[in-house]
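Q: Convert this sequence to structure tokens.
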Amino acid sequence: MTRSSLSRRSFLASSVASAGVLTTPGIVRAENRVIRIGYITALSGPRAEFGASDPWMLEQVNALLAKGLDIGGHQYQVEILMRDNESNVNRSASVGNELIQREDVDLLLVQDLDASVATGEMSDIAGIPSISTMGPWQAWMFGRGSNPEQGFPYSFTFFWGADDAMSTFTRIWDQVSTNKVVGDFYFDNPAGQAFANPDLGLPSFMASAGYSRVDGGMFQIDTSDFSAQVSKFKEAGAEIVTGFGFPPHWSTFWAQAGQAGYTPEAATFAAAFLFPSAIQALGDRGDGMTTEVWWTPKVPFVSSLTGQTAAELAAAWEEKSGGQWMQTLGYSHALFETGIAALKASGAPKDRDLVRDAIAALKMDTMVGPVDWAGSPIKNVARTEVAGGQWRKTGAKHAYDLVITENTLAPSMPVEAQTVALSKL
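A:
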């Protein structure tokens, strides 16, 4: 474990202890009939797109739970306390501490990687079960100084691995005729660090697949000038650009690339191309962006809570919002599916150890497909599917549609077309 991870853990431990929430696992609190669920998401800041559908999703879940839950022969009311982490890791720690210390939640649900790293440690220290998603499991686990054999006492996650997305990227590029020179740059957060790792990250996958690398380095969340990367990639003749960052980062880079006359044949930037609004914001130059694909309305999965199909969930969101479906819909929904299933399976939702054990034993079908902690070789991690896709102007219902072009690791998402080079669109 690194000095930085020790320092962070020591800080979190002292913060939680000083707040009076460092409890002894296994002690059951006085029984009451209200289950309190803390929900942390990003509703503002550069990651706000990830939480854009969450207020609506919370309305659906609250309506579903309006009459409470019958668990172990007792009727429980359910309160869900949503908090905006403002896309900020320090804010994540603050709201996590608030939910644990002041709100005394029974379960913590987190749909943000940076937040799950900070609050995961808090939940382990305080003995409060937590489930997170929407972040590669390696960044969640290794960023906290653990490993697949050790895991964690109370925190769990479900998502695909960074290695899954990386191998998908190279298979996307294999469909396009290029000089196999790749320029890469990454946002300096746990996910970006996992992608950038020279031995285990995207540089290693690129080398194994026969691609050469032009290293554009790491950048901070408030970076607004990528002219150095543009110049370096253009000079090296990089016909592919990749990395990790959020929509504002790519939008700035892509505008500066256009101004400099830099025109790669493929652009695959993790996280930045997940949302239709981010592609639409690029105008005509959004055509052909390639991305990892977690979920679409076409997957053959059904909600364990509502019985909705993926297509029905997406249609309900589009009708309510007037906007296009987004990939996070499926995972936000599945986060509540797993949390509620664990509470029910525990038989005693106020007993934190029993809820923790119920999560560890959970194997269920969800809106994003199978989520299996019980049979996972990686402790506390349930892996899900990831495919590759390309945003295309199809002239259909939406300005751009996400077309599946690679599905080696996601057989539930059938291939719809081959990836097309940007110069051919």
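The two ends are 48 Å apart (CA to CA).
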